[in-house]
Amino acid sequence: MEPFIPFIVGLAIILFGGWLLTGHNRMVLRFQNDPELSEKQRNALVKQHQRRRVATGLIIAIGFLIPLSEIAATNYKNPLLASLIILLVLLLVLLVFGYAFWDLLASRGLREDLDFKKAEIELKRRILEQELAKHQSPRAEHEQNEIRRNGSG
Questions:
Q1: Three-state SS for 121?
Q2: Are 61 and 91 in contact (CB under 8 A)?
Q3: Nearest alpha carbon to residue 56 among 25, 84, 82, 11
Q4: Element (H, E) at 90
């Protein structure tokens, strides 16, 4: 059972990467078709998910390399090749972390812009609710007065 563990881990990483890639593709399509986003926001969000796609591609490559290192070590009895593959896996892991950090820094301004837009929309909603309440209040009083006059008269 032990020799199959790298293959199971590799397959799990590949499937996880495929799931992430599908999600990123869906998000890009959603952003491209969102009429509420400005062109600047849309481009920034699409670029953000393109960076995430690259990182996901690296994750999938890691999923392929893990079983490959096991094959190099056991079938070909080549510890040097297995070591090089493991070093490549570690390098790819560092690149994934680098992309994640880059994505964090690059999306900071975008998040602030989107948070500002959400706050602005929320403020407009509250103002409209207050205006509606002001207009409904005199109308409700007028209707109550009409009911009282008609009911008592």
A1: helix
A2: no
A3: 25
A4: helix 79-152
Q: What is the DSSP string of 28-79?
A: HHHHHT-TTS-HHHHHHHHHHHHHHHHHHHHHHHHHHHHHHHHHHHHTS--H
Whether this prediction's pTM lies above 0.85 is answered by: no
Find out whether 92 and 31 touch, Cβ atoms under 8 Å.
no
CA atoms within 13 A on the CB side of 77: 0
For 78-105, the pLDDT digits (tens) are: 889 989 999 999 999 999 999 989 888 8
Measure Cα distances from 100 to 58, 109, 127, 133, 145 in Å: 12, 16, 39, 47, 64
Cα–Cα separations (whole angstroms), residue 85 to 34, 61, 97: 43, 11, 18
**1/51 Cα distance (integer angstroms):** 37
